[in-house]
Amino acid sequence: MADNIIGFENHLEDIRNKRHWWTKIDFDMDWNAMMSLVDNHPESKYNWVSEKKRLGLNEFHRRGSAPKFAKDIFEEMYNLFVRNAPQKEKYEKGKAQITNIAFCGFGKYTGSYPRHKDGMDVFLVQVLGDCPIRVGYTEERTEQDEDRVMKPGDCLWIPRGTYHQLTPKESRVTFSFGFESDVDIDPALFL
């Protein structure tokens, strides 16, 4: 059972109203532990983007060596979002799922995605290094956008349809958890 280290249930109003929110968690992770995870991750679950010097480790929480906090976040999201979804039996069989990727960027020229919005709700955890991020609600950048630098332990909920962009300036690891589902099980509609 997850330790509810995030407390998603404390942010239901933000989730319902499609507002991003921040929290912080404590964990023990260093580059040696992360490199061990990278070295032992199945090659079939790698997503290397050489021009951006970025590696994505898909489904990393399933590894025995994955950090406990990642497994706990996965379980906490699953227990809240998938189990509370309408027709949960249908969604538990693959229609709705919690996905996860460990994004590892190497060096000061590491890149990320351009400003974009996702069709799923995303929960980011900054694990190693600092990473600037900009969050906004329109396609174009505006003065209302929020700019921050994510530091290890910083977490951000990004509702589906919310524009965001990470602009790493140094080696970093960011864990991304997504609630992927059909439109009719957007958590804003049923929580």
CATH superfamily: Cupin
Described by the principal axes of the CA atoms, the overall outline is: globular
Task: State the strand order across the main sheet.
Answer: 1-8-5-10-4-3-2
Described by strand count, sense and barrel closure, the largest sheet is: 7 strands, antiparallel
Any idea of the CATH class?
Mainly Beta
Radius of gyration: 16 Å
The strand count comes to 10
What is the number of independent domains? 1
| Order of helical and strand elements | HEHEEHHEEEEEEEH
Q: Pairing-aware structural class of the strands and helices?
A: alpha+beta
Provide the helix percentage: 10-25%
Count of alpha/pi helices: 5
Classify the beta-strand content into a percent band. Answer: 25-35%
Q: What name does the CATH topology carry?
A: Jelly Rolls
Mean pLDDT: 87
CATH architecture: Sandwich
> Which ranges are low-confidence, i.e. pLDDT below 50, for 5 or more consecutive residues?
none
Distance between the termini: 20 Å
Condensed summary:
This protein is α+β, with helices and mostly antiparallel strands and 191 residues long. 21% of the residues lie in helices and 31% in strands.
Explain the overall architecture.
This protein is an alpha+beta fold and 191 residues long. The radius of gyration is 16 Å and the shape is globular. It has one domain (8-84, 96-182): Cupin (Jelly Rolls, Sandwich). The chain has helices at residues 12-16, 31-39, 68-82, 88-95, 187-190, and strands spanning 21-24, 46-49, 54-58, 97-105, 121-128, 131-136, 146-150, 154-158, 163-166, 172-180. A 7-stranded antiparallel β-sheet has the order 1-8-5-10-4-3-2. The model has no long low-confidence stretch (mean pLDDT 87). The chain contains 5 helices and 10 strands; from the N terminus they run αβαββααβββββββα.
